[in-house]
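Before relying on records like the one below, remember that each one covers exactly one chain. Contacts with other chains, cofactors or solvent are not represented anywhere in the record.
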Amino acid sequence: MLNEKSLTGKAVVIGAGTMGGGIAAQLANAGWQVTLLDRAGSDPADKKTRNQLAAVGLERVIKNRPPLLFLPEYASRIRVGNTSDDLAALQDADWVVEAVAENMAIKRELLEAVEAQIGPQTLVSTNTSGLSLKEMSAGRSADFQRRFFGTHFLNPPRYLKLLEVILTEQTDRTLAEGFKRFAEQVLGHRVVEARDTPGFISTRIWIEHLLESIRIAVEQGLTVEEADALTGTLLGRPRSATFRMADLVGLDIIAAIAANQHERLPDDPLREHLVLPDVVQRLIADGRLGEKSGAGFYKREGKAILALDLQTLEYRPRQEPDFPETDALLKRPLAERFAAFAAANTTRWGHYVHAILDSLWAYVTFVAPEVAFDVLSVDNVMRWGFQWELGPFEIEDLRSGEGKNYTGSGPERKMRVFDQAELQPVPIDPQYIRLEDLRGKRVLESEVGTLLDLGDGVACLEFHTKMNTFDPVLTQFVTTARERAERDFAALVIGNQGAHFSTGYNLKWFLDRVAESNWNAIETEMEAIQAAFRGLKYAKIPVVAAPFGYTLGAGCECALHSTTIQASPELTMGLPETTVGLLPTGGGVTEVLTRSMAGWDGISDAFPRVERAFDLIVTKGNAGSGAEAQKMGLLRETDSISRNADRLLYDAKQKALALANAGYRPPVQRSIWVLGEEALARLRMPIHWHYRSGAISAHDRLIADKIASILSGEVLHAQEVREEALLRLERSHFMELIREPKTQERMRAVLETGKPLKN
């Protein structure tokens, strides 16, 4: 039976299209062996031709951007075949997932063939996005039906964590519960159980709300830019919002989903909302299908992005929306924004926001009891599947000011269950820690960070500056929090539940000091951040960093100096300081070299170790996943990667407790081997040739040379040096670089454009 202990296994995915390939990739990411099948080619004597459709699907997985696989080599875990020759693979499969075209006849025929081949313990699921499971499994044996259920992944499965699981009356509940635990704790998804209705929860609500948001925008005379500005970040939703989202999905796909829902929902009182707005129909007729066709509601011409005039259907330069009131609202917490919308109902922008939220609420009120079991399921679908910060029931409670759907918080939180008259307790899973539920357990609090009690003798240091960037105030708070944790706790976790762990150091602080020529303040802060991170490294208690998302620059250095790391599978980690004309100065160069030289026998050629350290800092770039960070050496073999990003803090806490209970002792400070001028000369050779070839600029050469100088130790011959000596070199070369006009240009460019400047 599949459950959270099924860390390895065999799966067969039938259907090598975009979704089937994505599911196969996610299984490969989890360490499973996957057979990817599709229809057979026509020539039975040519195996390559027979497997061509599946091979094309695998190639699509390998080439996809953003990557579907954590590492390219994970593709070796997927083999291809066809449904005519290779159904025998089903016999020893733990799980078979069907992901063929949304056609009932095709799916029924395939399931008949699957039943004839599967082993006695194999689970079977369909990845339908809305077809009836009851109808699909009709005629199959009772034994098959007890092992059959629906698994509605969203595309791409690696990046969209929602998984709707749909059970029939015949599905074995014990098997289904085991699969849910497997999906959460091995595949890394968040599971919501939906009823067997057309479109389930996700498609049913999303497609109606998208089409209504488009229709109302056209009706009220808004531009596509205005509607997207009002339905994106302002409402706690992705920046793609409405019209941009439609382009990304594809207008033809939206049309197909809407037509399918319209056909299958004859009794839906708002069925007319599923008829495509005229503007969408006209764009489809013109072949303007969105991103994939090069034009939809937006069109890219060179570097310029044009927007569609909804009246003339011609493209024009994109215009910035003029809603000053929303700029002020964006500075307020999301919950306060919804409460404030009531006062804006008479404004042009407020009229639109109210109209789409009223429409959403009217539809959800009707449809939710039909598709879901409780309000939390609906809200979780929209948060996990569509990256909304708040679901429709949470939004309505904020808009109305009444606790109709939820009351209380933390362990006392209750919710509306559709077949219950009274609100029921929200189930609490201790493996999903929510820091917002621990606000009553603050130990230290500052405008830049909080020290929380996670229970069981473990504290959590949480950052909450903008993008969790470091500045002198946060640097000091790290030290203060660590000292308090050493005194009152057995272990410390460093983590948060913002968008990113930390994007590095606040460049604006540096530029402000540069403008003042306050070089002393900069050098003092660099010494302070080195001391803060060394404090973590040599703390009296174990310190576990829980990085996720962007973990860059100083954020990366913070994690590197922790006792150990419990990383998210989705992790962008690295030391990109060279792109802004600087070098890692929070002990990053020193720590990378220390790790590279660890275990050197003093006899063999150590230069490859130094070279690896140089490449990691200068040329490798950022890791794009936890697995890649481990491969690059940013994570050690003793560091761990959570399978589910939402369990990251729980996993980090368990790791911290294990270290504390094992009698943790801080590391002894040791000297570091450096190789002197010989290593410096060998590092300078490729720097010189890269410059001569035009691959790097003179300023890039200067930065690389300074990093090489630190790694060599600036001594004549190979010898051991103290950590403090290398840290002084970091500070010295950093101060030289930050005085350079070209470095300052790079820093300004990143702040102003978000993109690195090559100068």
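The chain is about 45% helix and 15% strand.
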